[in-house]
Each structure stands twice: as structure tokens, then as C-alpha cells.
Amino acid sequence: MTLRPNPVSDFLTICNLPQTPSTITIQDTYGRTRMTLVHTEESAILNLSHLPPQIYFITISDFTHTLTKKIIKLEEQPQPGAIARAEAGKAGNDNALFPPLCRCFSPIYPLLKRRNRNKTEKKQKQNRK
């Protein structure tokens, strides 16, 4: 299981989850459960922007295994382009609001990379002629 980024400020990406139904629980250092969800896919993106900055423990358990890891929640830092993304969301462009996906999250990443490489090769051949 991979957690990215850690420390996190808003969105946490979890890759390589078991493909069986898994329970994801986030607890603070006092043992209070702050978030719980059941997930059945290989990857997940969690919005942690509503949690205050501190150390949390994320527990992922399925029928046979339980795994706990520590995550550090930082204060949200304004990122370059954050205002533009928010404005795009108001305009109805929902794609601008989703965080970038890690490579392990997208099973089509190798296909997209190959397609882009093929396009570049075609342009290079055309320029040579």
C-alpha cells in the first residue's frame, strides 16, 4: 500500500489497496475516529481538507489483514493556480477540481504514455521530410 503525499495538506492518494472490500479508517492521536469508508477498488483519493493539522493513523482492513500507517496533515497551502481551479469549478468545469492521479492509480497510464510517444515520433518523421 502506498500513501501519497505524506505529509498531506488536502488530498491523499492511496494506491495498491486489496481488491476485496476494505474498510479505511482515519483516527487522530487520541483514538477518535475522524473518517471511515468502505472501498472496493485498487486505489482511492481521500479529501482530508476538513481535518485540522496534526498526526493521524490510517487503518486499512479487509477480511484477513489489517494495516496501519501514520500520516501527517499539514495546513492547507495555497498553490499556484488554485484560484484558477476554483474559478473553473464555478464555471462548471469539474475536471479542474480533481487532484492529479498517481501513476499506479490509472491503469491506462502506460497506454497514454505510448500514444504520446507515437505522436511525437510521427511529428519527427514529418519534420524530416
Alpha-carbon distance between the termini?
49 Å
Would you identify the regions where 5 or more consecutive residues have pLDDT less than 50?
91-109
Number of helices: 2
According to CATH, the fold-level topology is: Immunoglobulin-like
Instruction: Please identify, by name, the CATH architecture.
Output: Sandwich
Spatially, the strands of the biggest sheet line up as 4-3-6-7
Helix content: 10-25%
Residues in β-strands, percent = 25-35%
CATH class: Mainly Beta
* Main sheet overview: 4 strands, antiparallel
**Helix-strand pattern:** EEEEEEEHH
The whole-number mean of residue pLDDT values reads 75
- Number of self-contained structural domains: 1
> What is the alpha-carbon Rg in Å?
19 Å
Strand segment count: 7
* Structural class assignment: alpha+beta
Shape: elongated
Would you write up a description of this structure?
The structure is a single chain. The protein has 129 residues and is α+β, with helices and mostly antiparallel strands. 22% of the residues lie in helices and 33% in strands. It has a single domain, classed as Immunoglobulin-like (Sandwich). It has two helices and seven strands, in the order E-E-E-E-E-E-E-H-H. Strands 4-3-6-7 form a four-stranded antiparallel beta sheet, with no helix packed on it. It is elongated. Residues 91-109 have low confidence and may be disordered.
